[in-house]
Amino acid sequence: MDEVRVVIAAGCSDANLQNKAGRTPLHEVAAIGDQNLLKIMFKLHADANMHDKDDRTPVHVAAEKGHTSSVEVLIDKFGGSIRARTRDGSTLLHIAACSGHTSTALAFLKRGVPLFMPNKKGALGLHSAAAAGFNDVVKMLISKGTSVDVRTKDNYTALHVAVMSGKASVVETLLGAGADVHVRGGELGQTALHIAASLDGPESRECAMMLLKSGGQPDVAQEDGETCLHIAARNGNKEIMKLMLNENANAQIKSNSGETPLHVCARSCNFEAAQMILNHLSEKLSPEELKGYANQRDNSGFTAIHYAAEITANMIHYPGEDAKLVNLLVDYGGQVELQSLNTNETAMHMAARSGNQAVLLAMVNKIGAGAVQIVQNKQSKNGWSPLLEACSRGHTEVAKILLQHHARIDVFDDQGRTALHLAALNGHLPIVHLLLQHKAFVNSKSKTGEAPLHLCAMNGHVKVVNVLVQDHGASLEAITLENQTALHFAAKYGQLAVSQTLLALGANPNARDDKGQTPLHLSAENDYPDVVKLFLKMKQNNRAVLTAIDHNGFTCAHIAAMKGSLAVVKELMMIDKAMVIQAKTKTMEATTLHMAAAGGHANIVKILLENGANPEDENAHGMTALHLGAKNGYVAILEAFDKGLWRRCSRKTGLNALHIAAYYGNSDFVNEMLKHVPASIRSEPPIYNHHVVKEFATEYGFTPLHLASQSGHDSLVRMLLNQGVQVDATSTTMDWRGRTPLHLAAQNGHYEMVSLLIAQGSNINVMDQVPLCFAAANNHIECLRYLLQQKHDTHLLMEDRKFIFDLMICGKGNDNEPLQEFILQSPAPIDTAVKLSALYRDMSEKEKERAKDLSNVAVFSENMAVELLGIAASEYNAAMLLKAKDNRGRPLLDVLIENQQAINDMNNTSAFKQNTQIQKEVVSYASVQRYLTEIWTARVDWSFGKTLAFSLLVFMCPPAWFYFSLPLDSRIGRAPIIKFVCHIVSHVYFVILLTVVVLNITHKMYKFI
């Protein structure tokens, strides 16, 4: 208190000042619980609701310490909140309960702190008190109404929590209050008894005993199928196991993984626990049943002796426990020779893998020499015997034991490798010596032709190499199926020391594999400059080594540049710079610069250019180094090339790097180039055609937008269209054939690209062949459908016989959908359908190979015309339809009649019948009949009798016939029925005249002969 007064006197009167932990002076005073200091802090207006880093207020601190009077002062005078909660969601009641302050907890309850408010874990004050072991608080909270079986988020009750904390007195209280011992909690669905089985010590034993006496079931399984006996066995809890076995716990129950408690004992190396289980079962089972239990398999087919065999030294609890466990299992009938289901491994495999000599000796001594011979030579699924396991992992003593018992040394695994292969592969020199002493074949080969020397060379085991070659005569020229020697392997994997050793021992550095590669090629390919330097030093004056090519025509310089081996390239250039720079591959005519640029190795590109490499050299496909970098999108190489080269076009393709990058959709590369090259730049005519470059041999005038559209790169096209300052880089720019980007997008079926370009203002009606023609010609249905929905010239398209034919081809496998869409999207669907029918009829006569298909679409068009006319006639005036004129000014009725005449001229009987039927169907509509009647009568509304009288008048009175036959400009004169009557009378007059002339008997015809 005096110290506080001194601080105040010094002028430090800020009572709410916080330290690094966020605590104020009031927090500290609340922890002390001094009433006088609280009064001083009150005068200084200290805030009782200030939070520290754990969101604890001074009220929480006072509650934790059990200062009930201080709590009341802080709440009543300082205005401290009783609702405040800590970072983990604990209320004041939680704090008081877990601190064991019953009176403080009661004070909070009286002031209205919620009894059932959970924290973040879903725990109430009851759980907190039970975990801390405060029995009085537990009793008080239960008496105030807290349910004894209330659960947390993880479904743990207070009983679970108390057992977990080993609070036996609280467990007794909870059981006395009626706690349910069968409630499951946690992810595994544990009961309180499961938790007790997982703990050790007298408290857990006492808890388990109380739970068992209160009805706890030892054979109830968790979600993973494990019972209390499994759990106790894993932890070696002998006291708990005794309790469980005394309660007749079933030791034969299997978990979900198929493990019995005996498996768990063996896996955990708990000899006493295993002994306890087997002794217990020996009183209940027959010897055969007990043997069956000892050999029970889990889901993987492993028995308890398998798990005992893989015990390592750090798992045993005292010396010799592992051997005792194995002896115990064998004594109770455990069979060492049993193989697992998935891997076919025996217990000896497991012992050899773990390197446990004691376990292996125990098995060998127990089963006898004859059985050992059988078991130790059994192979697992991958072909490994126990000896191969031991040799692979370097367990020399285990290998000795197996060899002493005559383990076969010539066992091959599924890859054809022997124990010597595996020992050499992993560099286990003592085992290599041991195997060779037992007559292992030093040059034996695997299925891929690898000898032990190859494998130790690959992993850099120099000592093993020396032993194999010098001491045991391993062949340096032994080759694999790919014709690779041990030196190839050493060079391929960058083993410098082994390479030196092999060369010193006489290995051939010029040996070639089946790809024509020498060790030098392989070291260059995999970027091992030190190994490359080693080979170059040996042959420094032999240029043939540098110019040697593999089957692909690559020198080591090409390979190094392709793989990005900068150090190797530098070493090679020190020997022969001209060879490195000028050498070209056979087929592609590529230089090292091409290779480096194609791989995006900017550092190598820069060095090659600095040393005189020609950046304008083209490969067989017309690609320069910059073109190849653009093709693969390597922006980093751009800075290595002069800006003037950025615009340079290939002599074989006419394309520059920007065109190539756009064609392959490399947006970043294009974006970088656009800083110095305009987006409107066009490709140039190729200077000469090349037999390799076919796609662009005769094409030019492309902009980057053309090429990006042709390849369908949406994002790149958007970027090019947004190059606003480049006026020519619009979507309407044409190549030398007049094709826009839209044409190329449609030709290649890029639907999204087509829609994007049209949205940007592309005209679909430019050029003789519009994009619709390209889409139809290449059978791109989706693009065709989209383009048909745009504004287009139907009449112009119908004049293009190829487009009409392609439209039929597109529709053949799609129920004529494109043709139907074309008709419906046209300005006059009926007119279009009628004309298409006639066109297809005409084409069917000329295209004999596709006559049937063309006739079918002609019928389809005719049917559409009928249906459309019927629909239109039912909704609108038929006169308007039949009088409607096409683009040439012909009424629809005339078109129908004209098509009928065309079919007659074709003398096509089936077509004539079909068209006649269609005309009948058209005429059958009442509105059409009314219109045709009006045309026929020209509104001369005469009755039948009057019409008949007029016909007789014209016939009987030739002047009347002559008068009405004249082209009179009157309603009656223009009426078709009047003209028809006059026409009939004319025929009658003509017949009468002929009859009179022929039958006139006043003149004898023979006189004229």
From TrEMBL:
InterPro entries linked to this entry: Ankyrin_rpt, Ankyrin_rpt-contain_sf, Multifunctional_ANK_Repeat
UniProtKB keywords: ANK repeat, Membrane, Repeat, Transmembrane, Transmembrane helix
Keyword RNA-binding belongs to the record: no
Transmembrane intervals: 948-968, 980-1001
One Pfam family named in its UniProt record: Ank_2
Alphabetized Gene3D superfamilies for the sequence: Ankyrin repeat-containing domain
Start-end of each ANK repeat: 21-53, 54-77, 88-120, 121-153, 154-186, 188-223, 224-256, 382-414, 415-447, 448-470, 482-514, 515-537, 588-620, 700-732, 737-769
PANTHER family per UniProt: ANKYRIN REPEAT-CONTAINING, PROTEIN HOS4
Protein name, per record: Uncharacterized protein
Organism per entry: Diploscapter pachys
The organism's taxonomic lineage, starting at the top: Eukaryota, Metazoa, Ecdysozoa, Nematoda, Chromadorea
